[in-house]
Every structure is written in C-alpha cells, then in structure tokens.
Amino acid sequence: MIRAKPSSALNMKAVHPMPFDFETVVDRRHTNSVKWDVADNELPMWVADMDFQTAPAITEALKKRAQFGIFGYEEVPKSYYQAVADWWATEHDFRPQLDWLMFCTGVVPAISSMVRKMTAPGDNVLVQGPVYNIFYHSIENNGRHTLASDLVNHDDEYLIDWDDLGAKLAEPLTTMMILCNPQNPIGIVWSRETLQRLGELCLKHHVLVVADEIHCDLTLNGQAYTPFSSLSTEVAANSISCVSPSKTFNVAALHAATLIIPDENVRALVSRGINNDELAEPNSFAIPASIAAYTQGHEWVAALREKLAANQRQVQQFLTIELPEVKLIEAQATYLLWLDVSQVTTDSTDLATFVRAQTGLFLSAGEVYRGDGKRFLRMNVACPTSELTDGLSRLKAGIEAYQERNQI
C-alpha cells in the first residue's frame, strides 16, 4: 500500500522558472484575513490558506461580474456543472454524470448537514485520525459520537489497521464514515485498491461514505488522486464526495463547492438537507469564478503544484542540514506538512505555543487532529520562498530555545 513515508524519498532536483508569480509577497495584514489576524511581528503558517494570489482568469471573471452591477438572486446554470465534469475528466481521468452533481456553499457546511440528515443522534461517525479537526466538530456538535480507527504510524509510514477498521464499521451504531482523500494533515493519496477495499467494507456494514476530496487537485511529484465516485458502481453508489475550487485556487471566501452523489436516493436525501439548511443558493461571484477556474485554470494549477513541491523540498533540505531532530513526513498531496517533533517533545501544543511566543511563527499543533498528533506540528508551506525561508529560520530558533529552556 502507498502511504505517507519519510522524506528521504523527495526528489531534490532543480525546478525551472514558472509562468505565474508565486514569489511576490502580498501584504495581507489588516485585510480581515483569518490567517493574518496576528501581531505585526508574527508569521502565520497554520490555517489552510495560501499566500498566493489566485489564477488571473478568476480575477478577470470577478471583475466582469462586478462591473455588471446587479447582484440579485441567482441560480446554478448547467455550464457550472459542465465545467466541473470537464475538469474532472481532464485532470483526473473521470467524468461524473451531470445529474450526480449538486452545488452547495461549502464542504464543511455540507458535511455538517449530511451528518444531521443521514445519521441519527447518538450514531457513530467513523474517522481515521490524525485527520482534519473540523470533522470532529461536525460530528460532535450535532450530537453524534466520533468513532476513531486511527492510522498506524509504522516506521514513519501511516497504514490502515484493517482489523480495527472492520470491527468498528461493524458496530451497529456506526452509520457514516468521513474519509479524507487526499488526507489532511498527513498528505496521503489513497490508492484505488485501498479505496475500493475500504468502500467494500463500508458497503458490507451499511455505512455511508462521505469523502472530503477538497485537496484532490494538489497532488505532488507525480501522485494521482482517485475519485471515490470512480470506484465500482456498487461502492460509488454508497458515497458522497465533496469537492471545491477553494483550496486549489485559494478562493475559500467565494463559498462554492460541489457534491458528487451517484445514487439517486442518496441524492434526494442530501438535496433535502442542503436546501433545508439554506446551503444551495450561490452568491453572485461563486459561479463565474468557479467556471473560470475549471475552464481556464489548468496551467496555473500545474505551476502551483511545481511550486508546492519545490517548497516541500526546501523544507526537507533545511531540516536535514539545520534541524535533524525534526522529521518530515512526505506529503503526497496538499501544501500542509506534517512535522514529527517527537525527538523534541511529547507535547506539540506546548512546543507550538512556545515557538509562537518566542519567534512569532504560528504553526498548528497536531493534537487537534487527534490520533498521534501530540507528536507533530502542521506547517502550511503555500507561500513565497522568502516567507518560507523566514518561517524555517524561526522554527529553528524556536526549537533551539525550547530545548535550551528544558535543559535548565
């Protein structure tokens, strides 16, 4: 099975100049940015928000829409769904049927809605920790129980414990599994064989699969993502996939996402939930921006992938030479790096707090992702080279100061 592995496998070759600008530092302070709502001396490298301006085609589409000057109630046109289907066909060798597709205003709101609509209070919703922390909120804030079948870290490779997963799926109260594909925060790109096996287990035990595939376009170093809805007909029919341009193009505030639901009956139930929760109506900018992204964004995303891979190589080179006590788990996708700090501390929350106070570097403590997250920090490297270089320098200074403090 292909899983996240130690970073020694990273290719260190040079990267050719890119056709788009990923090096200009844009000052985002005092712009109502969640990420950059920090002190003046701080450098935020935590939340999944890139410090790159979006694809030029999107900006042009937004300008054109703004110039129209009327922003009344809007519908989702067929051209939106066609753009989504065409993108998946071109980028991922899979074309979903148009009637499988459903617009919604965000992946997380949709997951919360589906937890409410497709499970009952008190049910188990299964996840594989360490995993995106908001899943736990969507489950527990809605009166359901989180049931974890945590990934097993074996010699720095994360594996599924199939016996544990099967036993927990078989529990009578387990009715839904939320899958992260590709996986956040570890960056695993699940293979088709693994997904099919997992899907067959869920089908056997009558557990609905909700696949969060929001990072699917950001695969690295030749990895290829497998859409869950492209699996066997029976397995795909027992699934809902959540996709969006938000991470790919850094347009989260536009509030646009798509649900891929092959089964008609599942689709009807989800539609009722999405509409009851008022998540089905687009704002004036969501549709034109999404269509521009999916029809004109291929070259920009290809260049972005190169930049993200280069940034990961920079991190690996730095850690190897300057900070060998910190180990990088190679990300096969996403721009979120999983840093093993177990040689420094067993409490990454304490370390993250100290590093931020000492140096201004703001990283995510791994504990919030549960599983073995207390041994890890998560670092967002979707930024210009100068910012990344600054962040790595701060990381080294912070960890050295932390070690010095603990030796006293």
Top keywords for this entry?
408 residues, alpha/beta, Aspartate Aminotransferase, domain 1, Aspartate Aminotransferase, domain 2, seven-stranded mixed beta sheet, four-stranded antiparallel beta sheet, globular
TL;DR of this structure?
The chain has 408 residues and is α/β, with parallel strands linked by helices. The chain has helices at 56-68, 78-92, 107-118, 134-140, 162-169, 192-204, 233-237, 246-249, 264-276, 286-296, 298-322, 348-359, 385-407, and strands spanning 43-44, 101-104, 124-127, 145-148, 152-154, 157-159, 174-180, 208-212, 239-243, 257-260, 327-329, 336-340, 361-362, 364-365, 376-380. It has 13 helices and 15 strands.
How would you describe what is shown here?
This protein is of the alpha/beta class. Helix content is 39%, strand content 14%. The strands form 4 sheets. Strands 2-10-9-8-7-3-4 form a 7-stranded mixed β-sheet, sandwiched between helices. The chain has a 4-stranded antiparallel β-sheet with strand order 11-12-15-14, with helices on one face. Helix 6 (192-204) links the parallel strand 7 and strand 8. Residues 5-9 and 11-16 have low confidence and may be disordered.
